[in-house]
Design brief:
By secondary structure, the protein is mainly α. The protein is about 70% helix and about 0% strand. Strands 1-2 form a two-stranded antiparallel ribbon. Helix 8 packs antiparallel against helix 9. The model is unreliable at about 5-15 (pLDDT under 50).
Length: about 300
């Protein structure tokens, strides 16, 4: 009789997690343990404390807090200024994300070419990103000031009429704050896109040009697909950064004009907690913002995973 051939199982590339010696676990704890401890102490514990505090009515000068359940959330939902502040937050975030990504990619594509003095221009574009937002806010007050600002002076020299009063009109005030933020943070998206362009496959672009594809077609069909992971990454990080803007708004407008003209949810957390001394209500706004951000981030990550699987 002919014996049947025996099947051999493929060898595993490494040990399973449970079969590792204790020294591997000890090394893991030594390397990862301090980071986990810092995250638990300075990120997750304050987050949980904030969620817990949102169910209390607490004046930060009072040692005791009163449990009020969902009253803070009901008040936030029913207040007349809530949806104005939410609208301000959405408008500012969308403008900041789209503006910084579009301008950052355009500058990265321009300065990726061999141009004279491009290293100096690259440094100039990135420099505002490392400057304090409060300092930039003070500097741009002299740009947008309707009486003696740079824009007013240029308009007068060119023979144009008076410039808008950026500090009295809520729409122009939001435009002023958004432009200031874009100028400061443009260097971040510029550097990330510039690094991504270094890894683009040039032969694909050359092949598209040989096939007769125009610049727009090459950009849309060849370049953008290769930059998709970078674009997903920037969409998440820029969104998170723009939603946390406080210093520029505090220096330039203090949330005004007309009360809440440029007030965002982050600035409202500061207002309620440290000006109105309602830390419980401020924690409620922060918790709502965290839950919305968590949902948006999970949605973006899932879209990014689906794009990588294609």
């Amino acid at each position: 009789m002919r014996s049947s051939p025996q099947r051999t199982l493929p060898e595993s590339g490494g040990r399973s997690f449970l079969d590792r010696p204790w020294s591997d676990y000890a090394l893991f704890l030594v390397l990862v343990g301090p980071n986990l401890a810092l995250l638990a102490a300075f990120t997750y514990r304050p987050l949980l404390d904030n969620i817990r505090l949102s169910f209390f009515d607490w004046n930060i000068s009072d040692p005791t807090a009163t449990f009020v359940g969902l009253s803070n959330y009901r008040e936030w939902w029913g207040r007349s200024d809530t949806w104005q502040i939410v609208t301000n937050t959405i408008v500012f975030t969308v403008a900041a994300v789209l503006g910084s990504m579009v301008l950052g990619l355009a500058l990265a594509m321009l300065l990726d070419r061999k141009l004279k003095g491009r290293n100096l221009v690259r440094s100039a574009v990135f420099a505002p990103f490392v400057i304090s937002g409060a300092a930039i806010g003070v500097a741009f007050q002299f740009v947008f000031d309707p009486n003696f600002g740079l824009i007013q002076d240029l308009a007068h020299r060119l023979g144009f009429g008076g410039v808008p009063d950026f500090y009295q009109d809520p729409h122009w005030a939001m435009f002023m704050v958004t432009v200031t933020y874009l100028w400061k943070n443009l260097g971040y998206t510029f550097v990330i896109y510039l690094a991504a362009l270094q890894g683009v496959r040039k032969e694909l672009t050359e092949a598209a040009e040989i096939d007769g594809a125009g610049r727009w077609t090459t950009f849309r069909r060849v370049l953008l697909p290769q930059l998709r992971p970078t674009t997903y990454f920037l969409s998440i990080t820029v969104m998170l950064n723009s939603l946390q803007v406080f210093d520029i708004i505090n220096v330039m407008t203090r949330g005004g004009p007309l009360g809440t003209g440029t007030t965002t949810m982050v600035f409202q957390v500061y207002e309620e907690s440290f000006r109105n001394f309602r830390a419980g209500y401020g924690a409620t706004v922060a918790t709502v913002m965290f839950l919305v951000l968590l949902g948006i981030t999970i949605f973006q990550v899932r879209i990014m995973d689906r794009g990588e699987q294609r």
